[in-house]
Amino acid sequence: MKKGTKSEVEDMQLAEACLTGNEKAQAQLFDQYSGQMMALCLRYGRDYEEARDMFQDGFIKVFQKLDMYNGKGPLGAWIRRTIANNALDQIRKNKREKVHEESYQVEFKYEHETEFELFNDDENELTNEKLTALIETMPTGYRTVFNMYVVEDYSHKEIAEQLGITESTSKTQYRKAKAYMRNLIEEELNKSVSD
Predict the structure, then answer these.
(1) In this structure, is residue 62 part of a structural domain?
(2) N or C terminus of the chain with fewer C-beta within 10 Å?
(3) Helix/strand number for the chain, H first, E second
(4) Which of 33, 39, 16, 43 shows the shortest CA–CA distance to 149?
(5) Which tens digits make up the pLDDT trace of 61-70?
(6) 138 Cβ neighbours under 8 A, 6+ residues apart
(7) CATH of the domain at 156
(8) Same structural domain for residues 89 and 114?
């Protein structure tokens, strides 16, 4: 039988302790992941209140479904997926278009960094906070696909499955979101040059 890494063993021990009702372990798990998960929910909610509801409901599901964590892969990744799926379920349930993001360090996938790094260097002074604020102004549908693809690292196939749309719709929404984002960034850069 293959032994897991130290991290995997620690994750499994923490999960098992939570399942036995150990409040200290539950508090540790919550404290360890709550900041990242709230940031994730802020990307999906229309506003802070909705994001907070997604966050709270998501953590309830994490604790309810913790017995499903099998120790394969990081616990944080399992929690992230559980909370993201909960947020997407709420979006579908509310029959809205999709997503939101708060001012925090945007973690773009590597292949997308080159698309936006032009707008995020010292010369242009377009910070991650400003990029995040610009993302918040995108129409909800664009924001959802953009965040899922660029920030959450979903494939177009996964996005289509999660949102109940076709892959081509996901690709089209992403392409439109990129164009919309470029226009917003150019306007912001022109505004900062003229100031």
Answers:
(1) yes
(2) N
(3) 9, 0
(4) 43
(5) 999 999 999 8
(6) 146, 177, 180, 181, 184
(7) 1.10.10.10
(8) no
Residue 190 lies in a domain: yes
pLDDT in tens, 38-96: 988 888 887 889 889 999 999 999 999 999 998 888 999 899 989 988 988 887 777 54
Residue with tokens 């372990």: 25
Q: Which residues form the domain of 33?
A: 6-93
Same domain, 54 and 128: no
Final residue of a domain: which of 93, 122, 147? Answer: 93
Q: Is the per-residue pLDDT at 103 higher than 90?
A: no
Instruction: Evaluate whether residue 124 is within a structural domain.
Output: yes
Distance CA 145, CA 125 (A): 26
> Could you tell me which of 83, 108, 73, 68 has the C-alpha nearest to residue 33?
83
The DSSP code for 69 is -
The amino acid that residue 58 corresponds to is: G
For the stretch 127-177, pLDDT in tens is 767 777 777 788 878 888 888 888 788 899 988 888 888 999 999 999 999
